[in-house]
Structure formats: C-alpha cells, structure tokens
Specification:
Blueprint: H1 3-25, H2 30-48, H3 53-66, H4 72-75, H5 82-100, H6 102-111, H7 118-133, H8 139-156, H9 164-176, H10 189-202, H11 208-234, H12 254-271, H13 273-276, H14 280-292, H15 303-307, H16 310-329, H17 331-343, H18 350-367, H19 372-377, H20 381-388, H21 392-403, H22 413-421, H23 426-454
C-alpha cells in the first residue's frame, strides 16, 4: 500500500468512525456511542496498517481522555498492568540473549531434538512451545525465551534471512508458544482472568485438570498439529544443512553464565507464583533491571535506545486501555445484549445456544481483544445461563472457544511482542491467524463440541 493509499484509507476510516459515533449518539449515551466510534477507528486502523500501530495507540489515548470517555486511570491503565511490564522484560531479555550469544549456544542443543527435515524441525519447535506452556505462566515469557534461540537455530541450520524455512521456524515458535496455551489454565492471561472472575463473581471454581481435560485435547493438541500443517504449507523449503562440528564448543563466558542464572531464577519464581503471589510481570521487570545494570555486561550500552521497540509498548498499552474503556463504558454489555436479542437465545436449544454464545464471545474478542472476552462476558454469565437453560459451567467455558481463536494479531499482545522481537512481518502473521481462524471454526470447533457433549457439558435436547 503506497503513501497516498494509506492516507486515503486513514481518512476513510476516520470518517466512518465519526459517522458511527454520531449515529449511535442519537439513541445511546455518549459514553457508549463515542467508545464504539473510537473502538472502530482503532480496530480498523490496526487491521489496515494505514498508520503505524503506535500512532493509532497514541490517538486513542488522546481522544479517550480529551473526550471524557473514561478517566485517565482507565485509559492509561495498560501502563500499570503486569502484562505491559512482562512485555518490556521480555524485550530486554531477548536483547540480552542476543547480546551475550546465549541463543547461539543453546541453538545446537535444540537442534539435536529435531529431525532431518523442515517438518520435523517445525513440529519439534511447536512441541517445545506447548511443553513450556505447562511450566511458564505467560506467552510473552515463553516467546521471549524461545524466539532468540530459534532464530539462532535457523542460522545454525543454514536458514538465512529471506528463506521460507526461517520464517516457518520463527512462526512455529511464536504461535506454538501462544495458541495451544489457551487450553492450559494458568498459561495465558485470558484463562487466568476467566478463572479469577468466575470465582469472584459466581463462586465457581475452575479446576486445573477440569479445564485441561475439557479444552486441551482439541484446542491444545489438535490445534498444535494443525498449526504445523499450516506453517509447512505456507513456507515450504529444502531440508536443512547440518554444519560440521570441527571443534568442541568453547566454555561459557561470564556474561552467558550470569544471564543463564537470571533466566533460571525468573523461571523458578514464575513456577512458584502460587507460593509468593508475585505477578510474572514484576518478576520480568526485576530481571530486566539486572540485565540493564551498568557493568553487568548483559546488554549493550544503547539497548534501551536502539533495541527496545517503544512503539510496540505503546501499542500494547493502547490495546489493553481500549479493552478497559469498552468494559467501563458499558459498550461490551450493550454488544452482548444486542447480540443475544438478535440471535434469540432461548431454553431447550443447547447446541444452538452454545454455538451462539461462542459467536457472541468471538465478536467481543474482535471488538476488544482476547483478554477482554472474560472481562465483558463473565459478569453476564448468570443471566445467559438463565436465558439459555445451559449450566453455568458451559456458559463460562464457551469463552474459551472465542479467546483461543485469534482472528487478527492485534487481538493477542503476545503476537505483537513476537512481531517486534522477531522482526516478523505483520502481513504474514495476519495470514496465519486468518487461516487458523477459519480452520478452527470449520474443523476444531465442531470436534470440540462433540468432545464437550461426550463429557456431558450440554445435552442434545
């Protein structure tokens, strides 16, 4: 898209958003109408790429505060979020892994697990991402650790910049560490928000193994397998070259040892968060401070100025702020209410009601983001259970059908982080998201509902 086309697209999106806000304001409160217009503006701008993502985020901050749609604490709440600082810490950690050379050292170790084909390599990387999901509580943390190592592995195997095989490996690391993890309770932010809000609002406790048994067979394991197939079809390449080992690897440097100690300490604290209750974001921030400390030798002197993508940080903070504004303005509840009336939810139609609730949650995910689904849907779960006649557990779990199926990268902050740290083209990430979104709707969702029926989540009549 050329500069003139981008300017025209930006102008068209602005006019459409203003028209939407003005039209809705005729019969809805300004808080809902204005938020709808601003939300449409941000989503269309991010999806089209008419202007840089961070610029759209800055426009959101300015308009939301100046127009009085929400107080600054809500609009700028993303900056105080643990997720924001987990992203920042992950960026610093990735820069440190590159600077010290630890990624190049770990790459051959990962390479020994792969086969002699690109398919074996991609499958192994996705499997490693899934395994890490059981021990690391954040997709951002997993991506921050895995992506630099996989990039070094691609160099090790001869997949240089521009090779489809390199893109396949990086996409496998990104999506493998993120998408299947939605089926593992503490592995992604939306899962944890759902569990916490269900217990606080409805006194419904979601057990770890209950959640895993319900979601992982289809939305975890089968989705991981589907991801491997999609990536290999999109990025075919020749088998990797195996470099000869002419000499034994050198001893680890002081910086590599120090960074490895920091990483292991962070992993230990992440794994024991149930004991100390320190959020993963603050642990990542502490690790970043250590890596940035002058004289530590873990990052370059210009790391903050040249290697940290502040545009991505503003972008992610804006995404979280938009979700918060939508939730507090009442727009989310209005969308759920309108969708419910349009679909005509009623008791005695369990399969139809389950599909409809999944569709409503998917719409909410597109309007807000993946973490916004439980924030908007959970408060109304009791009413939806009464209207549909479905068990409360079934109503709550339909949210996982939505936030596990990412249609566009901007809906999932970990994918945005991966695009920044791995220098991945947003167009390619969007292509994978759209393909997986369609395949999930057509293939995995029906299979998942059959599995739910086998587990007694809803009767046939």
């Amino acid at each position: 898209m050329g500069a003139v086309q981008r300017q025209g697209m930006a102008a068209l999106i602005t006019l459409m958003s203003l028209a939407l806000a003005a039209g809705l304001a005729l019969w809805l409160p300004w808080g809902i109408a204005g938020t709808a217009g601003l939300g449409a503006f941000c989503i269309l701008m991010w999806a089209s790429g008419a202007v840089p993502e961070h610029l759209t985020g800055l426009i959101f901050f300015a308009v939301a505060i100046l127009s009085g749609l929400a107080v600054p604490d809500v609009v700028l709440g993303g900056f105080s979020s643990s997720t924001f600082w987990l992203l920042f810490g992950g960026m610093v950690m990735a820069a440190s892994i590159r600077f010290t050379g630890l990624g190049r050292r770990l790459a051959p170790l990962l390479g020994r697990l792969t086969g002699q084909s690109l398919g074996g390599i991609v499958a192994t990387i996705v499997a490693v991402g899934v395994v890490l999901s059981f021990v690391l509580p954040s997709s951002m943390g997993r991506i921050a650790l895995l992506l630099p190592v996989v990039a070094a592995l691609a160099d090790h195997l001869g997949y240089t910049q521009g090779r489809p095989g390199r893109m396949a490996m990086l996409m496998a690391a990104t999506f493998g560490a993120c998408l299947p993890a939605y089926a593992i309770l503490p592995a992604n932010l939306p899962n944890m928000i759902l569990a916490g809000s269900a217990e606080s609002l409805w006194q419904y406790h979601i057990g770890y193994f209950d959640y895993l048994w319900l979601h992982f067979p289809v939305l975890g394991a089968l989705k991981a397998a589907l991801l491997v197939v999609v990536i290999l079809r999109l990025y075919p390449d020749q088998p990797p070259g195996r470099p000869e080992q002419h000499e034994a690897p050198s001893a680890m440097s002081r910086a590599e040892i120090a960074l490895l100690v920091v990483i292991l300490a962070m992993l230990g604290l992440w794994l024991t968060d149930a004991l100390h209750h320190i959020s993963p974001g603050w642990i990542a921030l502490a690790g970043a401070v250590i890596c940035l400390w002058p004289g530590a030798g873990l990052t370059g002197p210009k790391c903050l100025n040249e290697e940290i993508g502040y545009g991505t940080l503003f972008f992610v903070a804006a995404i979280m702020g938009l979700g918060a504004v939508i939730a507090t303005s009442g727009l989310g509840e209005w969308i759920v209410g309108q969708a419910s009336r349009l679909i005509g939810l009623a008791p005695g139609q369990p399969l139809r009601s389950t599909l409809a609730l999944g569709a409503i949650a998917t719409l909410v995910a597109l309007v807000t983001n993946q973490p916004g689904v439980p924030l908007v849907m959970t408060p109304g779960a009791g009413h939806l259970a009464e209207v549909t006649g479905l068990p409360l557990a079934t109503v709550l779990m339909t949210q996982a059908l939505a936030f596990s199926n990412v249609m566009l990268p901007f809906q999932a902050p970990p994918l945005i982080m991966a695009a920044q740290t791995g220098n991945l083209p947003m167009r390619e990430m969007t292509r994978i998201c759209l393909i997986l979104f369609g395949l999930t709707l057509l293939v995995l969702t029906p299979l998942d509902l059959v599995w739910w029926w086998c587990l007694g989540m809803f009767p046939l009549s």
